[in-house]
Amino acid sequence: MSTARNFQTEVLNLLIQIPEGRVTTYGELARALTGSVRAARAVGQAVARNPQPITIPCHRVVRSTGEVGEYGGGVAMKIQLLRAEGVEIAGGKVVDFEHKVFRFEDEQEQLRFLTDRMFGKLTTWLRILGYDTLYAADIPLSRDQEDEDNALAAFAAREGRILLTRDKNLVTSAIRKGVHCVLIKTDGVLDQLQELLQHHVPITLEPVPERCSECNARIRKVAARESALLRHNRYVPQDMIGTWEFWVCDRCGRIYWEGSHWRDIRERLKRLNGNEDCRSDGE
Ligand SMILES: [Zn+2]
């Protein structure tokens, strides 16, 4: 009995990871949970028992053929919900299905970081690049230095995070725990990103509106019907509401858009990419 309930919970936990504007399939959910698509039927039953439709977005689960499939509130409602999130549907099927499918294992392979207290700015930039990055100062740890080091290393090991630090002793103890660790030596954030590349950490230097740079939660696109959310924030350029795209962090409330700050970051990253090219040409 408890096993069935755990399975149900695990399915619901996966459902909340499907981003707005994407879909997944019963098979993908089954593969993520059991390593095989054979559990797809059991997954389908668990999805159908979703106690909180819309909040837990089971409407984002479709058939492996791209057909929309069933929904508790009716197929028409499912299509309406998906369209509202930017998923195009034609002839009962998801348009551009291959690019719309969210595969959990791709997500699990994504780089995740844990940064020590020296790297507030690097933390912000990694989040702007879309990487799940936890900052040591934000996780509750012991005040005693040695304990903090141990706790940081253990935390990185448990969550499969790459630990970025300036502390050689921490690197030694973390590597002993099997943690992927990078000793950062430079001060400027661009130099630090370059160091990651030199250590063969395959980060992509392209800002993406996926993660809150303040609190690390995923951000989501603000729908047209939510414009009140934008009007309540004085720092949002009010004349651009309805013209620009905005994103919101549901955890801390921060609003994002591709403004001048964003363009500045993109330019600086481009120069970094350029430097890299020059360097390899020179070698
Ligand atoms: Zn936030």
- Extract low-pLDDT stretches: 276-283
The main β sheet shows up as: 4 strands, parallel
Adjacency order of strands in the biggest sheet: 6-5-7-8
Alpha-carbon Rg, integer: 21 Å
Number of helix segments?
12
Q: Averaged pLDDT, please?
A: 86
Q: What is the H/E order?
A: HEHHEHEEHHEHEHEHEHEHEEH
Tertiary shape: globular
Q: What small molecules does this complex bind?
A: zinc ion
> How many separate structural domains?
3
Tally of strands? 11
Which CATH top level class of the largest domain fits? Answer: Alpha Beta
- Based on the structure given, which CATH architecture of the largest domain is correct? 3-Layer(aba) Sandwich
What fraction of the residues are assigned to beta strands by DSSP? 5-15%
Question: Helical percent range?
Answer: 40-55%
* CATH topology annotation of the largest domain: Rossmann fold
Alpha carbon gap, first and last residue: 63 Å
Which structural class do you get from the secondary structure elements?
A: alpha/beta
